[in-house]
Amino acid sequence: MNATHRTLDARGLACPEPVILTRKALAEGGFETLEVVVDNDAARENVLKFAEFSRCPVARVEAAEGVFRLWLATAGAPAPAPEVPSPASAGGAVVLVATEAIGRGDDELGRLLMRGFLFALTECEPPPLRVILMNGGVKLAVEGAESLVNLRRLADAGVEILACGTCLEFFGLKASLAVGRVSNMYEIAGHLLQGPAVTLS
Amino acid sequence: MNLTAHTRFSGCGAKLGPGVLEKALCGLSQPAYPDLLADFSGSEDAGLFRIGPDAALVQTVDFFPPIVDDPRLFGRIAAANALSDLYAMGARPITALALVCHPLRELGIEPLRAMMEGGLEALVEAGCALLGGHSIEDPEPKLGYAVTGIVDPARAWRNNTLVPGGALILTKPIGTGLVNMALRAGCASPEAMAASHTAMGTLNRAAAEVLARFQVMACTDVTGFGLAGHAAEMAGGGCCGLTLFPDRVPLLPGVGDYAAMGLVPEGTYRNREGRRHCLRGELSPLELDLVFDPQTSGGLLAAVPESVAGEVLSALHEAGVEAWNIGATGGEPGTIQIARP
What we know:
The complex is a heterodimer of chains A (201) and B (341).
Chain A: E1 5-9, H1 17-28, E2 33-38, H2 41-53, E3 58-64, E4 67-73, E5 94-97, H3 107-123, E6 130-133, H4 148-156, E7 160-164, H5 165-170, E8 181-183, H6 185-194, E9 197-200
Parallel strand pairs in A: 1-2, 5-6, 5-9, 6-7, 7-8
Antiparallel strand pairs in A: 2-4, 3-4
Helix pairs in contact in A: 1-2, 3-4
Chain B: H1 18-25, E1 36-38, E2 47-52, E3 55-64, H2 71-88, E4 92-102, H3 104-107, H4 110-126, E5 129-137, E6 142-151, E7 166-170, H5 176-184, H6 190-201, H7 205-211, E8 218-221, H8 226-235, E9 242-244, H9 255-260, H10 266-275, E10 279-280, H11 285-291, E11 300-305, H12 309-318, E12 324-329, E13 336-338
Parallel strand pairs in B: 4-5, 9-13, 10-13
Antiparallel strand pairs in B: 1-2, 2-3, 3-6, 4-6, 7-11, 7-12, 8-11, 9-12
Helix pairs in contact in B: 2-4, 5-6, 8-10
Protein backbone atom coordinates (compact mmCIF):
# COMPACT_ATOMS: atom_id res chain seq x y z
CA MET A 1 0.00 0.00 0.00
CA ASN A 2 1.36 3.39 -0.97
CA ALA A 3 0.06 6.88 -1.64
CA THR A 4 -0.47 6.23 -5.32
CA HIS A 5 -2.70 3.23 -4.74
CA ARG A 6 -6.12 3.10 -3.17
CA THR A 7 -8.33 0.13 -2.40
CA LEU A 8 -12.09 0.41 -2.39
CA ASP A 9 -13.75 -2.56 -0.76
CA ALA A 10 -17.29 -2.75 -2.12
CA ARG A 11 -17.96 -6.34 -1.13
CA GLY A 12 -21.40 -7.07 0.25
CA LEU A 13 -22.87 -3.92 -1.29
CA ALA A 14 -25.87 -4.00 -3.60
CA CYS A 15 -25.87 -2.12 -6.89
CA PRO A 16 -25.69 0.79 -7.48
CA GLU A 17 -23.57 1.30 -4.33
CA PRO A 18 -20.25 0.02 -5.81
CA VAL A 19 -20.65 2.39 -8.78
CA ILE A 20 -21.49 5.34 -6.50
CA LEU A 21 -18.39 4.68 -4.37
CA THR A 22 -16.20 4.28 -7.46
CA ARG A 23 -17.47 7.56 -8.86
CA LYS A 24 -16.77 9.28 -5.56
CA ALA A 25 -13.24 7.86 -5.33
CA LEU A 26 -12.38 8.82 -8.92
CA ALA A 27 -13.71 12.34 -8.31
CA GLU A 28 -11.54 12.69 -5.21
CA GLY A 29 -8.44 11.39 -7.01
CA GLY A 30 -5.00 11.56 -5.44
CA PHE A 31 -3.89 8.10 -6.59
CA GLU A 32 -2.65 6.40 -9.73
CA THR A 33 -4.50 3.13 -9.39
CA LEU A 34 -7.82 2.41 -7.77
CA GLU A 35 -8.46 -1.20 -6.86
CA VAL A 36 -12.19 -1.85 -6.59
CA VAL A 37 -13.08 -5.10 -4.86
CA VAL A 38 -16.56 -6.52 -5.48
CA ASP A 39 -18.13 -9.90 -4.88
CA ASN A 40 -20.78 -10.34 -7.55
CA ASP A 41 -21.06 -10.30 -11.35
CA ALA A 42 -23.51 -7.42 -11.49
CA ALA A 43 -21.22 -5.15 -9.48
CA ARG A 44 -18.20 -6.21 -11.57
CA GLU A 45 -19.99 -5.46 -14.86
CA ASN A 46 -21.42 -2.19 -13.56
CA VAL A 47 -18.08 -0.87 -12.27
CA LEU A 48 -16.46 -1.82 -15.60
CA LYS A 49 -19.24 0.01 -17.45
CA PHE A 50 -18.73 3.04 -15.26
CA ALA A 51 -14.96 2.98 -15.89
CA GLU A 52 -15.60 2.94 -19.63
CA PHE A 53 -18.20 5.70 -19.31
CA SER A 54 -15.73 7.91 -17.41
CA ARG A 55 -12.89 6.99 -19.82
CA CYS A 56 -10.86 5.47 -17.03
CA PRO A 57 -8.61 2.65 -18.32
CA VAL A 58 -8.96 -0.74 -16.66
CA ALA A 59 -5.45 -2.09 -16.10
CA ARG A 60 -6.51 -5.59 -15.12
CA VAL A 61 -9.27 -7.69 -13.61
CA GLU A 62 -8.58 -10.52 -11.20
CA ALA A 63 -11.15 -13.11 -10.21
CA ALA A 64 -10.73 -15.60 -7.40
CA GLU A 65 -13.27 -17.42 -5.27
CA GLY A 66 -16.14 -15.16 -6.23
CA VAL A 67 -14.19 -11.97 -5.51
CA PHE A 68 -13.28 -9.63 -8.32
CA ARG A 69 -10.46 -7.09 -8.13
CA LEU A 70 -10.72 -4.34 -10.75
CA TRP A 71 -7.64 -2.16 -11.18
CA LEU A 72 -8.60 1.23 -12.57
CA ALA A 73 -5.74 3.43 -13.71
CA THR A 74 -5.86 7.20 -13.41
CA ALA A 75 -3.17 9.74 -14.26
CA GLY A 76 -2.96 10.69 -10.60
CA ALA A 77 -5.01 13.82 -11.08
CA PRO A 78 -8.64 13.83 -9.99
CA ALA A 79 -10.76 12.53 -12.85
CA PRO A 80 -13.47 14.91 -13.93
CA ALA A 81 -16.68 13.73 -12.32
CA PRO A 82 -18.65 12.19 -15.18
CA GLU A 83 -22.04 13.74 -15.51
CA VAL A 84 -24.72 14.74 -17.91
CA PRO A 85 -22.88 16.30 -20.84
CA SER A 86 -23.05 20.09 -20.87
CA PRO A 87 -21.50 22.76 -23.07
CA ALA A 88 -18.63 23.42 -20.71
CA SER A 89 -16.51 26.37 -21.67
CA ALA A 90 -13.44 27.55 -19.80
CA GLY A 91 -13.57 29.91 -16.81
CA GLY A 92 -16.42 32.13 -15.69
CA ALA A 93 -18.57 32.10 -12.60
CA VAL A 94 -21.75 30.25 -11.87
CA VAL A 95 -24.62 32.40 -10.61
CA LEU A 96 -27.18 30.59 -8.49
CA VAL A 97 -30.44 32.53 -8.37
CA ALA A 98 -32.55 30.95 -5.63
CA THR A 99 -35.25 33.62 -5.37
CA GLU A 100 -37.52 35.83 -7.41
CA ALA A 101 -36.55 38.94 -5.43
CA ILE A 102 -33.15 39.94 -4.05
CA GLY A 103 -32.75 40.12 -0.29
CA ARG A 104 -35.19 40.72 2.53
CA GLY A 105 -36.98 43.94 3.43
CA ASP A 106 -39.45 44.68 0.70
CA ASP A 107 -40.44 42.16 -1.98
CA GLU A 108 -41.34 44.76 -4.57
CA LEU A 109 -37.95 46.37 -4.13
CA GLY A 110 -36.40 42.90 -4.25
CA ARG A 111 -38.01 42.18 -7.61
CA LEU A 112 -36.80 45.52 -9.02
CA LEU A 113 -33.32 44.71 -7.78
CA MET A 114 -33.45 41.29 -9.49
CA ARG A 115 -34.47 42.87 -12.80
CA GLY A 116 -31.65 45.36 -12.44
CA PHE A 117 -29.17 42.66 -11.56
CA LEU A 118 -30.03 40.43 -14.50
CA PHE A 119 -29.80 43.42 -16.84
CA ALA A 120 -26.41 44.37 -15.37
CA LEU A 121 -25.31 40.77 -15.83
CA THR A 122 -25.90 41.07 -19.59
CA GLU A 123 -23.37 43.92 -19.62
CA CYS A 124 -20.70 42.12 -17.60
CA GLU A 125 -17.44 41.13 -19.26
CA PRO A 126 -16.71 38.26 -19.22
CA PRO A 127 -20.24 36.95 -18.83
CA PRO A 128 -20.88 34.22 -16.28
CA LEU A 129 -20.52 30.62 -17.41
CA ARG A 130 -24.03 29.71 -16.39
CA VAL A 131 -27.02 30.94 -14.44
CA ILE A 132 -28.82 28.35 -12.34
CA LEU A 133 -32.40 29.05 -11.26
CA MET A 134 -33.86 27.37 -8.19
CA ASN A 135 -36.94 27.73 -5.99
CA GLY A 136 -38.71 31.06 -6.85
CA GLY A 137 -35.85 31.83 -9.23
CA VAL A 138 -37.39 29.59 -11.90
CA LYS A 139 -40.28 32.07 -12.18
CA LEU A 140 -37.84 34.53 -13.81
CA ALA A 141 -37.50 32.28 -16.86
CA VAL A 142 -41.10 31.49 -17.72
CA GLU A 143 -43.40 32.94 -20.35
CA GLY A 144 -44.48 36.47 -19.38
CA ALA A 145 -41.71 37.10 -16.80
CA GLU A 146 -40.24 40.61 -16.88
CA SER A 147 -36.70 39.27 -16.67
CA LEU A 148 -37.16 36.91 -19.59
CA VAL A 149 -35.68 39.39 -22.05
CA ASN A 150 -32.43 39.66 -20.06
CA LEU A 151 -32.13 35.93 -19.52
CA ARG A 152 -32.60 35.45 -23.27
CA ARG A 153 -29.86 37.99 -23.97
CA LEU A 154 -27.59 36.04 -21.63
CA ALA A 155 -28.50 32.78 -23.38
CA ASP A 156 -27.78 34.37 -26.77
CA ALA A 157 -24.37 35.43 -25.43
CA GLY A 158 -23.57 31.78 -24.69
CA VAL A 159 -24.48 31.71 -21.00
CA GLU A 160 -26.08 28.42 -20.08
CA ILE A 161 -29.40 28.91 -18.27
CA LEU A 162 -30.43 25.95 -16.11
CA ALA A 163 -33.77 25.72 -14.32
CA CYS A 164 -34.34 23.26 -11.49
CA GLY A 165 -36.88 20.69 -12.72
CA THR A 166 -38.24 19.91 -9.28
CA CYS A 167 -38.88 23.63 -8.70
CA LEU A 168 -40.65 24.07 -12.04
CA GLU A 169 -42.80 21.09 -11.22
CA PHE A 170 -43.56 22.43 -7.75
CA PHE A 171 -44.86 25.71 -9.17
CA GLY A 172 -46.63 23.94 -12.05
CA LEU A 173 -44.46 25.83 -14.54
CA LYS A 174 -42.82 22.93 -16.33
CA ALA A 175 -44.55 23.70 -19.64
CA SER A 176 -43.87 27.45 -19.38
CA LEU A 177 -40.06 27.51 -19.26
CA ALA A 178 -39.16 29.99 -22.00
CA VAL A 179 -35.37 30.09 -21.87
CA GLY A 180 -32.62 27.60 -21.04
CA ARG A 181 -33.27 24.00 -20.14
CA VAL A 182 -34.52 21.87 -17.28
CA SER A 183 -31.79 20.49 -15.03
CA ASN A 184 -31.55 18.21 -12.01
CA MET A 185 -29.93 18.33 -8.60
CA TYR A 186 -27.09 16.05 -9.64
CA GLU A 187 -26.05 18.30 -12.49
CA ILE A 188 -26.59 21.50 -10.47
CA ALA A 189 -24.53 20.25 -7.53
CA GLY A 190 -21.77 19.24 -9.95
CA HIS A 191 -21.67 22.75 -11.46
CA LEU A 192 -21.69 24.51 -8.10
CA LEU A 193 -18.68 22.50 -6.92
CA GLN A 194 -16.67 23.00 -10.09
CA GLY A 195 -15.72 26.63 -9.74
CA PRO A 196 -16.57 30.01 -8.25
CA ALA A 197 -20.29 30.32 -7.57
CA VAL A 198 -22.31 33.39 -6.57
CA THR A 199 -25.59 32.84 -4.76
CA LEU A 200 -28.51 35.24 -4.80
CA SER A 201 -31.17 34.41 -2.26
CA MET B 1 -39.75 10.47 3.29
CA ASN B 2 -37.18 8.33 1.54
CA LEU B 3 -38.76 4.91 1.17
CA THR B 4 -36.23 3.43 -1.24
CA ALA B 5 -33.39 3.99 1.26
CA HIS B 6 -34.86 1.11 3.28
CA THR B 7 -34.56 -1.50 0.55
CA ARG B 8 -31.89 -3.63 -1.04
CA PHE B 9 -33.75 -4.44 -4.26
CA SER B 10 -36.55 -2.43 -5.77
CA GLY B 11 -39.83 -3.21 -7.38
CA CYS B 12 -39.89 -6.28 -9.59
CA GLY B 13 -36.07 -6.23 -9.57
CA ALA B 14 -36.37 -8.14 -6.30
CA LYS B 15 -37.87 -11.10 -8.17
CA LEU B 16 -35.94 -14.38 -8.24
CA GLY B 17 -34.45 -15.08 -11.67
CA PRO B 18 -36.36 -17.34 -14.08
CA GLY B 19 -33.64 -20.02 -14.01
CA VAL B 20 -33.82 -20.25 -10.21
CA LEU B 21 -37.59 -20.58 -10.23
CA GLU B 22 -37.61 -23.30 -12.88
CA LYS B 23 -35.13 -25.31 -10.83
CA ALA B 24 -37.06 -24.85 -7.60
CA LEU B 25 -40.38 -25.89 -9.14
CA CYS B 26 -39.01 -28.65 -11.36
CA GLY B 27 -40.89 -31.89 -10.79
CA LEU B 28 -43.38 -30.46 -8.29
CA SER B 29 -46.93 -31.53 -9.03
CA GLN B 30 -50.36 -31.67 -7.41
CA PRO B 31 -53.47 -33.81 -8.10
CA ALA B 32 -55.22 -33.13 -11.39
CA TYR B 33 -58.21 -31.26 -9.95
CA PRO B 34 -60.92 -31.39 -12.63
CA ASP B 35 -61.55 -27.63 -12.51
CA LEU B 36 -57.91 -26.58 -12.37
CA LEU B 37 -57.15 -24.97 -15.73
CA ALA B 38 -53.70 -23.40 -15.17
CA ASP B 39 -51.31 -23.58 -12.22
CA PHE B 40 -47.65 -22.92 -11.52
CA SER B 41 -46.52 -25.70 -13.86
CA GLY B 42 -47.21 -23.46 -16.87
CA SER B 43 -45.64 -20.07 -17.37
CA GLU B 44 -48.92 -18.16 -17.17
CA ASP B 45 -49.14 -14.80 -15.45
CA ALA B 46 -51.90 -16.08 -13.18
CA GLY B 47 -53.64 -19.30 -12.20
CA LEU B 48 -57.07 -20.31 -13.56
CA PHE B 49 -59.75 -22.30 -11.78
CA ARG B 50 -63.18 -23.07 -13.26
CA ILE B 51 -66.18 -22.04 -11.14
CA GLY B 52 -68.90 -22.43 -13.78
CA PRO B 53 -69.47 -23.32 -17.43
CA ASP B 54 -68.36 -19.90 -18.73
CA ALA B 55 -66.43 -18.58 -15.76
CA ALA B 56 -63.09 -19.16 -14.13
CA LEU B 57 -61.32 -17.46 -11.27
CA VAL B 58 -58.01 -15.88 -12.18
CA GLN B 59 -55.69 -15.45 -9.20
CA THR B 60 -52.29 -13.87 -8.83
CA VAL B 61 -50.18 -12.19 -6.18
CA ASP B 62 -47.35 -9.72 -6.48
CA PHE B 63 -45.53 -7.74 -3.83
CA PHE B 64 -42.18 -5.97 -3.64
CA PRO B 65 -40.03 -3.38 -1.85
CA PRO B 66 -40.53 0.34 -2.65
CA ILE B 67 -39.49 1.51 -6.09
CA VAL B 68 -40.30 5.17 -5.44
CA ASP B 69 -39.88 7.41 -2.39
CA ASP B 70 -43.45 8.68 -2.31
CA PRO B 71 -45.52 6.15 -0.29
CA ARG B 72 -48.82 7.05 -1.94
CA LEU B 73 -47.37 6.57 -5.41
CA PHE B 74 -45.75 3.32 -4.28
CA GLY B 75 -49.15 2.04 -3.16
CA ARG B 76 -50.65 2.95 -6.49
CA ILE B 77 -47.85 1.23 -8.39
CA ALA B 78 -48.09 -1.92 -6.25
CA ALA B 79 -51.80 -2.23 -7.01
CA ALA B 80 -51.41 -1.41 -10.73
CA ASN B 81 -48.65 -4.02 -10.94
CA ALA B 82 -50.71 -6.76 -9.27
CA LEU B 83 -53.80 -6.01 -11.37
CA SER B 84 -51.69 -6.10 -14.49
CA ASP B 85 -51.49 -9.92 -14.45
CA LEU B 86 -55.29 -10.06 -14.58
CA TYR B 87 -55.48 -7.62 -17.47
CA ALA B 88 -52.80 -9.64 -19.28
CA MET B 89 -55.22 -12.61 -19.26
CA GLY B 90 -58.17 -10.55 -20.39
CA ALA B 91 -59.82 -10.95 -16.98
CA ARG B 92 -61.99 -8.50 -15.04
CA PRO B 93 -60.60 -7.79 -11.54
CA ILE B 94 -63.15 -8.33 -8.76
CA THR B 95 -61.39 -8.62 -5.39
CA ALA B 96 -58.04 -7.89 -3.75
CA LEU B 97 -56.19 -8.63 -0.50
CA ALA B 98 -53.27 -6.51 0.67
CA LEU B 99 -49.88 -7.92 1.76
CA VAL B 100 -47.91 -5.46 3.87
CA CYS B 101 -44.45 -5.63 5.45
CA HIS B 102 -43.69 -2.45 7.36
CA PRO B 103 -40.85 -1.20 9.60
CA LEU B 104 -43.21 0.53 12.01
CA ARG B 105 -40.49 1.70 14.40
CA GLU B 106 -38.39 3.41 11.73
CA LEU B 107 -41.12 4.80 9.51
CA GLY B 108 -44.18 5.23 11.74
CA ILE B 109 -47.76 4.87 10.65
CA GLU B 110 -48.13 7.80 8.24
CA PRO B 111 -46.36 6.32 5.20
CA LEU B 112 -48.30 3.09 5.74
CA ARG B 113 -51.53 5.04 5.59
CA ALA B 114 -50.38 6.86 2.43
CA MET B 115 -49.40 3.56 0.76
CA MET B 116 -52.81 2.06 1.49
CA GLU B 117 -54.51 5.20 0.14
CA GLY B 118 -52.56 5.04 -3.11
CA GLY B 119 -53.25 1.32 -3.49
CA LEU B 120 -56.95 1.74 -2.82
CA GLU B 121 -57.18 4.60 -5.32
CA ALA B 122 -55.88 2.28 -8.07
CA LEU B 123 -58.14 -0.60 -6.99
CA VAL B 124 -61.18 1.69 -7.09
CA GLU B 125 -60.13 2.81 -10.56
CA ALA B 126 -60.08 -0.86 -11.55
CA GLY B 127 -63.49 -1.51 -9.95
CA CYS B 128 -61.81 -4.10 -7.74
CA ALA B 129 -63.01 -4.52 -4.12
CA LEU B 130 -60.39 -4.59 -1.37
CA LEU B 131 -61.54 -7.30 1.06
CA GLY B 132 -58.73 -7.20 3.61
CA GLY B 133 -55.13 -8.22 3.96
CA HIS B 134 -52.31 -9.16 6.26
CA SER B 135 -49.46 -7.11 7.68
CA ILE B 136 -46.22 -7.99 9.44
CA GLU B 137 -43.42 -5.95 10.97
CA ASP B 138 -40.31 -6.21 8.81
CA PRO B 139 -37.10 -4.12 8.58
CA GLU B 140 -37.67 -3.75 4.83
CA PRO B 141 -40.98 -2.31 3.65
CA LYS B 142 -42.89 -4.33 1.06
CA LEU B 143 -46.35 -3.98 -0.35
CA GLY B 144 -48.46 -5.89 -2.80
CA TYR B 145 -51.81 -7.40 -3.50
CA ALA B 146 -53.31 -10.82 -4.11
CA VAL B 147 -55.94 -10.11 -6.73
CA THR B 148 -58.75 -12.17 -8.18
CA GLY B 149 -60.50 -11.72 -11.50
CA ILE B 150 -63.16 -13.43 -13.55
CA VAL B 151 -62.75 -14.60 -17.11
CA ASP B 152 -64.50 -16.92 -19.54
CA PRO B 153 -61.82 -19.64 -19.75
CA ALA B 154 -62.52 -20.21 -23.44
CA ARG B 155 -61.69 -16.54 -24.08
CA ALA B 156 -58.84 -16.04 -21.61
CA TRP B 157 -55.64 -14.81 -23.20
CA ARG B 158 -52.63 -17.06 -22.68
CA ASN B 159 -49.07 -15.81 -22.86
CA ASN B 160 -47.59 -18.56 -25.07
CA THR B 161 -50.20 -19.24 -27.73
CA LEU B 162 -48.41 -17.44 -30.56
CA VAL B 163 -49.15 -18.29 -34.17
CA PRO B 164 -47.25 -16.93 -37.17
CA GLY B 165 -48.47 -13.77 -38.88
CA GLY B 166 -48.91 -11.58 -35.83
CA ALA B 167 -47.58 -8.21 -34.74
CA LEU B 168 -46.30 -7.57 -31.20
CA ILE B 169 -47.80 -4.53 -29.51
CA LEU B 170 -46.22 -3.01 -26.37
CA THR B 171 -48.18 -0.47 -24.31
CA LYS B 172 -45.57 1.15 -22.02
CA PRO B 173 -41.97 2.29 -22.55
CA ILE B 174 -39.10 0.24 -21.09
CA GLY B 175 -36.61 1.29 -18.42
CA THR B 176 -38.21 1.54 -14.97
CA GLY B 177 -35.42 -0.60 -13.47
CA LEU B 178 -32.71 1.71 -14.79
CA VAL B 179 -34.52 4.87 -13.69
CA ASN B 180 -34.88 3.36 -10.23
CA MET B 181 -31.14 2.65 -10.05
CA ALA B 182 -30.42 6.20 -11.20
CA LEU B 183 -32.74 7.47 -8.47
CA ARG B 184 -30.75 5.51 -5.89
CA ALA B 185 -27.50 6.86 -7.31
CA GLY B 186 -28.88 10.41 -7.11
CA CYS B 187 -28.69 11.11 -10.82
CA ALA B 188 -32.15 10.41 -12.22
CA SER B 189 -33.36 13.41 -14.20
CA PRO B 190 -36.75 14.89 -13.29
CA GLU B 191 -37.98 13.99 -16.80
CA ALA B 192 -36.99 10.34 -16.39
CA MET B 193 -38.57 10.15 -12.94
CA ALA B 194 -41.80 11.77 -14.09
CA ALA B 195 -42.10 9.52 -17.15
CA SER B 196 -41.30 6.43 -15.11
CA HIS B 197 -43.82 7.34 -12.39
CA THR B 198 -46.52 7.92 -14.98
CA ALA B 199 -45.82 4.60 -16.69
CA MET B 200 -45.73 2.57 -13.46
CA GLY B 201 -48.80 4.26 -11.97
CA THR B 202 -50.95 3.69 -15.06
CA LEU B 203 -53.37 0.75 -14.94
CA ASN B 204 -53.32 -1.61 -17.91
CA ARG B 205 -57.12 -1.53 -17.81
CA ALA B 206 -57.65 0.76 -20.80
CA ALA B 207 -55.08 -1.14 -22.85
CA ALA B 208 -56.75 -4.48 -22.07
CA GLU B 209 -60.22 -3.14 -22.83
CA VAL B 210 -59.12 -1.89 -26.26
CA LEU B 211 -57.28 -5.14 -27.05
CA ALA B 212 -60.41 -7.12 -26.12
CA ARG B 213 -62.17 -5.56 -29.13
CA PHE B 214 -59.74 -7.40 -31.41
CA GLN B 215 -58.50 -10.96 -31.85
CA VAL B 216 -55.62 -11.44 -29.41
CA MET B 217 -53.33 -14.41 -30.17
CA ALA B 218 -51.42 -14.16 -26.91
CA CYS B 219 -50.81 -11.55 -24.23
CA THR B 220 -48.57 -11.01 -21.22
CA ASP B 221 -47.43 -8.09 -19.12
CA VAL B 222 -43.81 -6.97 -18.98
CA THR B 223 -42.51 -7.13 -15.41
CA GLY B 224 -39.54 -8.56 -13.55
CA PHE B 225 -38.05 -10.69 -16.33
CA GLY B 226 -37.79 -7.68 -18.64
CA LEU B 227 -39.11 -7.27 -22.17
CA ALA B 228 -36.94 -10.04 -23.64
CA GLY B 229 -37.60 -12.36 -20.68
CA HIS B 230 -41.35 -12.12 -21.08
CA ALA B 231 -41.04 -12.28 -24.87
CA ALA B 232 -39.09 -15.53 -24.40
CA GLU B 233 -41.97 -16.95 -22.34
CA MET B 234 -44.35 -15.99 -25.15
CA ALA B 235 -42.12 -17.71 -27.68
CA GLY B 236 -41.92 -20.85 -25.54
CA GLY B 237 -45.34 -22.22 -26.45
CA GLY B 238 -44.15 -24.63 -29.10
CA CYS B 239 -46.00 -23.30 -32.13
CA CYS B 240 -43.67 -20.49 -33.18
CA GLY B 241 -41.17 -17.97 -31.90
CA LEU B 242 -41.06 -14.24 -32.47
CA THR B 243 -39.01 -11.45 -33.97
CA LEU B 244 -38.07 -8.34 -31.99
CA PHE B 245 -37.20 -5.01 -33.63
CA PRO B 246 -34.88 -3.43 -31.02
CA ASP B 247 -34.86 -0.07 -32.82
CA ARG B 248 -38.62 0.23 -32.28
CA VAL B 249 -38.62 -0.53 -28.55
CA PRO B 250 -39.80 2.62 -26.74
CA LEU B 251 -37.55 3.81 -23.90
CA LEU B 252 -38.00 6.08 -20.91
CA PRO B 253 -35.86 9.26 -21.07
CA GLY B 254 -32.20 8.93 -20.06
CA VAL B 255 -32.09 5.15 -19.64
CA GLY B 256 -29.38 4.67 -22.27
CA ASP B 257 -27.10 7.00 -20.28
CA TYR B 258 -27.89 5.23 -17.01
CA ALA B 259 -27.04 1.83 -18.51
CA ALA B 260 -23.77 3.18 -19.94
CA MET B 261 -22.87 4.53 -16.47
CA GLY B 262 -23.22 1.06 -14.96
CA LEU B 263 -26.49 1.79 -13.17
CA VAL B 264 -27.83 -1.59 -14.27
CA PRO B 265 -30.02 -3.52 -11.80
CA GLU B 266 -28.78 -6.93 -10.66
CA GLY B 267 -32.04 -8.38 -11.96
CA THR B 268 -30.98 -7.45 -15.50
CA TYR B 269 -27.95 -9.72 -15.27
CA ARG B 270 -30.03 -12.54 -13.80
CA ASN B 271 -32.62 -12.16 -16.56
CA ARG B 272 -29.91 -12.13 -19.23
CA GLU B 273 -28.30 -15.20 -17.73
CA GLY B 274 -31.61 -17.07 -17.72
CA ARG B 275 -32.85 -16.18 -21.21
CA ARG B 276 -29.94 -15.15 -23.40
CA HIS B 277 -29.92 -18.60 -25.06
CA CYS B 278 -33.29 -17.72 -26.65
CA LEU B 279 -31.85 -14.78 -28.60
CA ARG B 280 -30.87 -15.18 -32.27
CA GLY B 281 -28.98 -12.31 -33.86
CA GLU B 282 -26.97 -9.42 -32.49
CA LEU B 283 -27.87 -7.08 -29.68
CA SER B 284 -25.30 -4.55 -28.45
CA PRO B 285 -24.34 -4.71 -24.75
CA LEU B 286 -26.43 -1.56 -24.23
CA GLU B 287 -29.47 -3.09 -25.94
CA LEU B 288 -29.09 -6.22 -23.79
CA ASP B 289 -29.21 -4.02 -20.68
CA LEU B 290 -32.40 -2.42 -21.98
CA VAL B 291 -34.36 -5.48 -23.13
CA PHE B 292 -33.58 -7.39 -19.92
CA ASP B 293 -34.26 -4.42 -17.61
CA PRO B 294 -36.71 -5.62 -14.93
CA GLN B 295 -39.91 -3.61 -15.22
CA THR B 296 -42.26 -2.74 -12.43
CA SER B 297 -45.89 -2.37 -13.49
CA GLY B 298 -44.86 -2.60 -17.14
CA GLY B 299 -47.14 -2.53 -20.14
CA LEU B 300 -49.02 -5.28 -21.91
CA LEU B 301 -47.21 -7.19 -24.66
CA ALA B 302 -49.84 -8.56 -27.01
CA ALA B 303 -49.74 -10.45 -30.28
CA VAL B 304 -52.50 -9.47 -32.71
CA PRO B 305 -52.94 -10.43 -36.37
CA GLU B 306 -50.60 -8.33 -38.52
CA SER B 307 -53.57 -7.30 -40.68
CA VAL B 308 -55.20 -5.38 -37.80
CA ALA B 309 -52.02 -4.10 -36.12
CA GLY B 310 -52.49 -0.56 -37.47
CA GLU B 311 -56.10 -0.49 -36.35
CA VAL B 312 -55.17 -1.77 -32.88
CA LEU B 313 -52.51 0.94 -32.51
CA SER B 314 -54.95 3.67 -33.56
CA ALA B 315 -57.60 2.39 -31.17
CA LEU B 316 -55.10 2.29 -28.30
CA HIS B 317 -53.89 5.82 -29.06
CA GLU B 318 -57.49 7.02 -29.24
CA ALA B 319 -58.11 5.58 -25.78
CA GLY B 320 -55.11 7.53 -24.48
CA VAL B 321 -52.85 4.45 -24.32
CA GLU B 322 -49.31 4.73 -25.64
CA ALA B 323 -48.54 1.76 -27.91
CA TRP B 324 -45.84 0.60 -30.29
CA ASN B 325 -45.47 -2.24 -32.79
CA ILE B 326 -42.16 -3.75 -31.74
CA GLY B 327 -42.06 -7.17 -33.34
CA ALA B 328 -43.69 -10.02 -35.23
CA THR B 329 -44.63 -13.62 -34.52
CA GLY B 330 -43.08 -16.54 -36.40
CA GLY B 331 -39.88 -18.49 -36.63
CA GLU B 332 -38.43 -21.29 -34.58
CA PRO B 333 -40.37 -21.95 -31.33
CA GLY B 334 -38.54 -20.82 -28.22
CA THR B 335 -36.46 -18.21 -30.00
CA ILE B 336 -36.40 -14.44 -30.31
CA GLN B 337 -34.98 -13.35 -33.65
CA ILE B 338 -33.42 -9.89 -33.58
CA ALA B 339 -34.16 -7.88 -36.74
CA ARG B 340 -33.60 -4.32 -37.91
CA PRO B 341 -36.08 -3.64 -40.70
